[in-house]
Amino acid sequence: MDQTLGYLREILSGHTDSDHAGKILYHKLVKNNYKNEEAFVRDLSSSEGDYLNKVLKEAIDYSEQEGDSERAGQLNEVYELLIL
Total domain count for the chain? Predict the structure, then answer.
């Protein structure tokens, strides 16, 4: 699995207990063998994309606060794919 997809999987795993949309996206990511983050983003519905957009904003902010610029940068690439 691509490192960025691994980050997404980790982030979404934290949203599976309390959030139905997070659970759906997590299972979609785990179940399908996406080649890269672009393939994953292209497979999202608009509501799934909106949800991921919100989750990514929080994760990018957290990564930046923790000084993890590599993770923040990779998550930002996914965020940019969502807004294209």
Answer: 1
